[in-house]
Amino acid sequence: MVLVDGSGFIFRAFHALPPMTNPDGVPVNAVYGFTNMLARLLREHVGTHLAVIFDAGRQTFRTEIYPQYKAHRPEPPEDLRPQFALIRDATRAFNVPAIELAGWEADDLIASYATTVREMGGTCTIVSSDKDLMQLIGPGVCMLEPIKQTAISTPEVEAKFGVTPDKVVDVQALMGDPTDNVPGVPGIGPKTASALVNEYGTLEAVLAAAPEMKKSKRRDMLIEHAEAARVSRKLVELARDVPLPMPVEELGVRELDKLVVADWLESMGFRSVLTRLGVGHPDGAHAHRSARATAHASVNGAAPSAGPDAPPAEAGQSAAAAASLATPYGPYDTVRTAEDLQIWVTAAQEAGLCAVDTETDGLDPLSANMVGISLATAPGKACYIPLRHEGTLEEPAGEQLQAAAALDILRPLLTDTTVLKIFQNAKFDLLVFDHAGLDFTTIGPVDDTMLISYAQSAGQHGQGMDELSTLHLGHTPISYDSVTGTGRNRVPFTQVPVARATPYAAEDADVTLRLWYVLHPALRTNQALALYEQLERPLSPVLASMEKAGIAINRAELGRLSEDFASRMGVMEKEIHEAAGREFNVGSPRQLGEILFDEMGLKGGKRGKAGAWSTDSSVLQELADQGHDLPARVLAWRQLAKLKSTYTDALLRQATTDDRVHTSFQMAITTTGRLSSNDPNLQNIPIRTEEGGRIRQAFIAPPGKKLISADYSQIELRLLADVANIPALREAFALGQDIHARTASEVFNIQLEEMDSLTRRRAKAINFGIIYGISAFGLGRQLGIPAGEARAYIDAYFARYPGIGDYMERMREQARATGYVLTPFGRRCYVPGIHEKSAVRRQYAERQAINAPLQGGAADIIKRAMVKLPNALKEAGLSARMLLQVHDELLFEADAEQADAVAALVRTVMEAAATLSVPLVVETGIGENWAEAH
Fold it and tell me: DNA-directed DNA polymerase family A palm domain: from which residue to which, for each copy (predicted)?
């Protein structure tokens, strides 16, 4: 039997979908959502028996036990009242029994039917996300969340309540439920309630043990409010012996009368549902009526709802997308009291989804304080909750909730596994909540509009909210500068008047929700749904954990390095002055340019727009390659200065009180899907230089721990061998041969046993250079040979491996035809400059098109491994944690005695992250510091 919680779904659909009216002007957004859900259920999840269960009224046996039960709930909104009858009409139109019984709630009827079916030896699926129904789950009974179509069984119940389904009522009795006005025991939250029930077994056992507990406020509350807890249990426990209005035997699935359904759908103007069901009238007699209905059905009276040509979407999604473009922005509510916030929380829970945004007093989520929180439950329907606004004499802040009090009210919503929380750049907000005291790992499920966009448009445009809003919604959001001022007149957000902060902050949540409605359906259209769901979305909390963990540093070692670098830079400056013939500021590009090109008369200089000589690294490198001493010395000085300022000095400033530094991983910056590290950037520490090695030595394992490095070996070359289908390279990797020696042998016709190091080095330069579209000039400069000789090497390489040339041409053609290339795992990497008129820019774009599938494929593989590793380590009973990702390398911290086991497990998971025609190989190392492990 399939039992649909009709009453529960009505409110969710009403709050989740934008206002809509049928051809007669009657509101129908909840009807539309319910109809889509029912149509999908009949198509995808039909049992042998089916019924939709409704509430008959507010007066039940519970109001006799406790008159305050649900008494605080407001009357249904005006726009919802006429929809109750229409939803029952929809049920009848689909030939499904609609069941209700005066004096009983729908939940009690569902419980009684489910119990009866189980006793008959059948199974029952309850289509609902209502937490109160989770007490019914057990052998023969499960739940199905109606929006996301996900199963809810014992593991999900345990994750939500901390107990098995049979103990849910005891936990609910202790913690109470403000949504239904169930009193519970004051001060007892979900974690405490589940801990008590797990320890003592039942509510009565907890209450009996209370007098013997250690003296505390919790003990006193349990004793004082014992009777309230007992009443609460009666309120939350579902009746399982309600007289059944219709016997189970009469609820067998009935045949659909297509003409009846078509008539009803057309009367409502629901043409998209008609199309998906394929139940339109064959003679087209009602076509004019459907067209009229579609023309009149409106969202806030401003725009037509989705017509028959709209792509299939989740219930109401296309209509909501239309509302996202048409509904006015604001006015928005300011929430100042616990009572008002509870109303918003209830609305969000009934809607089944909401957008969330935080305002902070800083940009570091690990230390920033929340100034306010925004919620949006439908397009145009949003609020701002001020928490730490200071106000002025002219504009006082007014009443505000304390941050801790607001979090207590929001916690049931944010941790509710049946309500989708939508963020823009979720990782930042999750860490802000975590810093405020709400463990971010308990928040979920979560969607991220930034990553939804990035999964389908990397490199095409930026992924910031303002840019996405302008691009997809045609709306320019209120700017931060217009709220806080600019320059010297800028004020901290804490000093922005609440009246000015509300429209700015609430609009952010509103825009985020609208973007979700528009962008999420496109994931499937753009074939990016798996990429988002399997990689980008689950990676966000993994990275948050890594950022929160940070990595330990040796302050003394960094201090010594900084002094050493400063001393060496002083010596180098004297040598540079001698080479220049006079003293000057080595760090001044203008002074350096004057010496190189005006005084020394070196050729090849170029002036910028301001008239000064350019002395960037490419200019200096070109001069150094020509044999000029001064540019080479300046390059060496700059490298040391950069290491000193970026690492040895900066790391000492950025380390927290526990001597750990916490980098931030940017998820939506690169075209290829690679992560970007900043504040500090730990991805640019030189690997092969002495100075880079010394900096890595300053990243250490705490006492009793070890660092473990796991690095993919030659992953981009392996991907090249795979996607370009090069038999010789595939064979070399399969046999574990030295790939560069094998390449040299193949290209230069030299036996492996006769290979010299110079020839191997040339083959290595070609192998890696080909990936980046290296030119003959570039290869010649790298190898110190004439460009003509380098060109001969490249020609010989392509002659030996023609498949690589074919692959490169395919990528160029794909980029020209579509504007993007695909990684082996389906990620789109856009190449905006592929049609540039400038040959230089166009050729650069072509090199991007060749490299992006390989670099992006490598990024996809390591992300796959990162998503799997935390659970793999946990399941193996290993306490290691992942700290850093640096391109193809992962760094872990583990107990010393577990280090070998961690390294072995990590290697296994990383090597199994993808299946190619060549093996993936991971090299691991263990050490007291990063350099030693690497």
Answer: 692-898
Q: What is the pTM of this model?
A: 0.71
Q: How far apart are CA 458 and CA 120, in angstroms?
A: 55
H/E run at residue 334: strand 333-334
Whether residue 561 sits in one domain with residue 517: no
- 637 and 776 inside one domain: no
Cβ pair 893, 925 in contact under 8 A: no
Query: Residues 618, 765: one domain?
Result: no
* Domain harbouring 502, CATH code: 3.30.420.10
Same domain, yes or no: 559 and 491: no
Which two tokens mark 86? 């229409």
* DSSP class of 254: P
| Residue 368 located in a structural domain | yes
Which residue, chain included where needed, has tokens 């290209």? 747
Phi, psi of 312 (to 5 degrees): -55, 140
What string of DSSP letters covers 758-771? HHHHHHHHHHHHHH
Task: Say if residue 299's pLDDT is above 90.
Answer: no
Which candidate, 776, 772, 771, places its Cα nearest to that of 788? 776
- Are 720 and 802 contained in the same domain? yes
Spatial distance between the Cα atoms of 162 and 328, rounded to a whole number of angstroms: 42
Alpha carbon of 324 to those of 317, 512, 678: distances in Å? 10, 10, 34
Domain boundary (186, 216, 250) is at 250
Q: Which domain holds residue 596?
A: 554-654
Task: Enumerate residues 6+ apart whose C-beta is below 8 A from 918.
Answer: 718, 721, 722, 729, 730, 733, 734
Strands (E), 475-592: 551-552
Q: Are 591 and 628 within one domain?
A: yes
**566 and 573 in contact (C-beta within 8 Å)?**
no
State yes or no: pLDDT of 46 exceeds 70: no
Is the pLDDT reported for residue 305 higher than 50? no
Cα 882 from Cα 888, distance rounded (Å): 14
Quote the mean pLDDT of the chain: 87
- Smallest CA-to-CA distance from 148 within 315, 377, 345, 322 is with 315
Tokens coding 131: 């937490």
Q: Taking phi first (over 0 means left), then psi (-120 to 50 degrees means alpha), and beta for anything else, what does residue 671 get?
A: alpha
The residue written with tokens 């850093």 in the block is: 884
Strand order in the sheet with 370-378: 333-334, 381-386, 370-378, 353-360, 420-423, 446-448
* 393 lies in the same domain as 441: yes
**CA–CA dist 291, 653 (Å, integer):** 66
| Interval 420-454: pLDDT, tens | 999 999 999 999 999 999 999 999 899 999 999 99
pLDDT at 316 over 70: no
Cα–Cα dist 398/391, whole Å: 8
User: What CATH number does residue 765 fall under?
Assistant: 1.10.150.20
* Phi-psi sector, 304: left (phi>0), alpha (psi -120 to 50), beta: beta
In this structure, the answer to whether residues 97 and 156 fall within a common structural domain is yes
| Residue 145 falls inside a structural domain | yes
pLDDT tens track for 873-891: 999 999 999 999 998 999 9
Print burial letters for 813-849: b (CB count within 10 Å at least 16), e (below 16): ebbeeeebbbbbbebbbbbbbbeeeeeeebebbbbbb
Strand spans (E) along 177-229: none
Separation of CA 929 from chain center = 31
CA 281 from centroid of its chain's CA atoms:
44
Question: How far is Cα of residue 26 from the mean position of the Cα atoms in its chain?
Answer: 38
Query: Which residues, other chains included, contact 166 with Cβ-Cβ below 8 Å and sequence gap of 6+?
Result: 135, 138
CA distance 824 to 854: 8
Give the pLDDT score at 291: 29
Residue 128 within a domain? yes
Lowest mean per-residue pLDDT among 83-87, 258-262, 697-701, 822-826 = 258-262
Last residue in a domain, options 825, 841, 857: 841
Number of domains the chain contains: 4
- Position 860 scores a pLDDT of 96
